[in-house]
Amino acid sequence: MEKLYPDSEVELTPFVAKHYDVLLNMVTLGFYRGFIRRAVASMKIKKKDEILDLGCGTGRNACLMYQYLGGGYVTGLDISEVMEKKFRKKCKNKPGAVFVRHRIDIPFNLGKKFDKVFISFVLHGFPQDVREVVIRNAFNHLKEEGSFHILDYGEFDLHKAPFYARFIFKKIECKYAFDYIGRDWKKILKEAGFTRFEEYKLAGRYARMLTAYKKEPGAKS
Ligand SMILES: C[S@@+](CC[C@H](N)C(=O)[O-])C[C@H]1O[C@@H](n2cnc3c(N)ncnc32)[C@H](O)[C@@H]1O
Fold it and tell me: What's the angle, vertex CA 107, arms to CA 103 and CA 110, rounded to 5?
């Protein structure tokens, strides 16, 4: 399949998609296992939550979120056929984990609202105007009390990063990621309508879970 954004690295080759979880564990020397568990734990998922996972990949994250649910559900959207197979296999005993083959980079309406929208290591891989569409999709699919959870790179100056961090980033990342780390994401999300933020730093300042709330607590709708 031809790439929608030829300069992007988040549209994976079939090989990388097929082995995504293993490759991630390998390149992070196993560090990713604990990383993703801590990130998901920071979402404060409630049993009945209805969660939308944008660019859900293999279903690894959906399965982790599922552990916190009891009656709630997680809907994963992704464009990749390989990811669809992986997700369906991984979540086959989890009736509340549903995969929908769908693009997230164009406006869409699933006809329902969610308590939480999650996006993990996808946003950085799009051009800025496309990221803004993804953010609008997230905002429009959230209930009034809902929250948007962005797990991705933090904001940092690559020139000031240690040699090994610069080396890895330059090796694995596309041009959009270089732009992503230099932007003020709270300001961008505020302009999109979000009112309040929480930040959970992971891997020093190089990655974070940024939570954006749609509504101020106690505010009238
Ligand atoms: C780097 S992977 C991250 C997967 C998953 N979120 C995770 O953290 O393990 C990026 C994912 O985004 C998906 N993706 C890329 N472009 C997309 C688009 N336009 N619409 C929906 N999914 C997309 C890819 O198929 C891939 O599964």
Answer: 75
Ligand 1: residue of 2, 10, 124 to mutate (most ligand atoms within 8 A of CB) is 10
**Please, which residues have CB within 8 angstroms of residue 57's CB and are 6 or more apart in sequence?**
17, 20, 76, 78, 80, 83, 86, 87, 120
Collapsed DSSP state (helix, strand, coil) of residue 135: helix
Confidence of residue 38 (pLDDT cuts 50, 70, 90): very high
Contact 73, 5 (CB under 8 A): no
Confidence class for position 205, pLDDT limits 50, 70, 90? confident
pTM for the structure as a whole? 0.96
pLDDT of residue 220: 67
C-alpha 166/C-alpha 143 separation (Å) is 39
Q: Higher-confidence residue: 203 or 152?
A: 152
Which of the listed residues 20, 78, 133, 209 should we mutate to test ligand 1's pocket, taking the one with most ligand atoms within 8 A of CB? 78
Domain annotation for the chain: domains and CATH numbers = 14-102+113-213 (3.40.50.150)
Q: 190 alpha carbon to ligand 1 midpoint, in Å?
A: 24
